[in-house]
Amino acid sequence: MKNLRFFPLALLLCLLFALCAPGALALEPPQLTAQAVLLVDLESGVTLYELNADQPRSPASLTKVMTILLTLEAVERGDVSLDDVVTAGADCRSGMRDDSSSVGIRPGEELTLRDLLYCAAVASGNDACNVLAVYLAGSIPAFVERMNQKAGELGCEQTHFVDPHGLSYDDMTSARDLYRITREAMRHPAFMELCDTRSYTVPASNKSGERQLKSSNALIAPDGVYGAGYLYEGAHGVKTGYTRAAGYCLISTAEREGMQLMAIVLGCDGPYLSNTETRYSFVDSAKLYDWAFSGFTLRCLLSEYDLVGSAPVTDGREEQVGLRPLRSVFAPLPKDADPAGLELRLRLYDENLTAPIRAGQVLGQVQVLYEGQVLVTEELAAAAPVPLRFWPGLARALLKDYT
């Protein structure tokens, strides 16, 4: 077995310039009412804080993220268009209770697909989700099957949907699965445009006058459903949710000084659950963001210009090939970091490297760990070419001609 050679000095210089450090290990987290929490840096995927992140829980209207995702995918495939006029069927209120969020869609009403998406994302219209489901899949059960199939494709381990809107207490997912689903949805530019909308006007239809929609995400909407009391600087949408089984839930993002974070809080306290008027899904999310922005700073963990190691090469003009990260990697790290806890781990995909090797050729992986916990993983590439030596090259050519 061939051994990798590390360049600890080069690594240390890179890390010290970056003041590298771990995720949430060194900081005391804030006090929250949430029963499950996940706080992630969106650039690196580093988890800053988690609590019961893999615990199955009812997601309430956070389910709608999957419904919106599948709709946007259908639009991008060309299966449907945002300008399609969709007619609501008799099942537009399927699974809904009288007190559940609704935009008042009536059977036979005609709305564009675009307007239905805004009804689902901004006003959390359960009826809009039902109409979308039937239009995309032919029936609500068929659409739910697609939801669960997509969840499986994304690696969700605790997720099982039974409706397109989240009203059922049998809907189950976890904070980590919701991160996977939302992260995938954010790859579609229209998703954040929808979820970051504070208000939207639905034009008059054949069965309704003009509708004025207001966002229920109080972190972003000072003139929304809950007023300006929870407004958070740098926050952006995603989705609110509430049922008695789920508690108060929120997926949100916030950005400051180059750091973009996602917070997922499930099972928070609030009205209808205890003697309080405070909706703690907003309060807990703001606490998480304050904690992260005050205690962490964005740093370079790996630079694509730095050698981090080398490996032996057979039949090359050089005996070693230098190894560098394929890309620079940035992550938010505690401001009072201790570089002594850092470790670099390199792994080759092929332990027996043979020339020729071209510059930039991917040869393995590099991981940065802190106290045994993997922070980031990036591919390892050859820092420079390693041409084949003359005689081995001639021998290979002759052997090739002979065979």
Structural features, described:
The protein is an alpha+beta fold and 403 residues long. It has 9 helices and 17 strands. It has helices spanning 8-18, 64-77, 113-121, 126-137, 140-153, 175-185, 189-195, 280-295, 390-402; strands at 5-6, 36-41, 47-51, 85-87, 110-112, 199-202, 211-214, 235-243, 247-256, 259-268, 296-302, 309-312, 320-325, 329-334, 342-348, 362-370, 373-382. The chain has a 6-stranded antiparallel sheet with strand order 1-12-13-17-16-15, with no helix packed on it. β9 and β10 (259-268) form a beta hairpin. α2 runs parallel beside α6 and α3 (113-121) packs across α4 (126-137). It is globular and about 80 Å long. The two termini are 30 Å apart. The model is unreliable at 8-25 (pLDDT under 50).
Main sheet: which strands, in order across? 1-12-13-17-16-15
Helix content: 25-40%
Gyration radius (Cα, Å) is: 26 Å
Low-confidence stretches: 8-25
Distance between the termini: 30 Å
Structural class: alpha+beta
- What best-fitting shape do the alpha-carbon axes yield? globular
Q: What is the number of helices?
A: 9
- Average pLDDT works out at 90
The biggest beta sheet is recorded as: 6 strands, antiparallel
Taken as a percent bin, the fraction of beta residues is 25-35%
Number of strands: 17
H/E order of the elements?
EHEEHEEHHHHHEEEEEHEEEEEEEH
Considering the chains and any ligands shown, give keywords for the structure.
403 residues; 5-stranded antiparallel sheet; alpha+beta; 9 helices; globular; 26% strand; 6-stranded antiparallel sheet
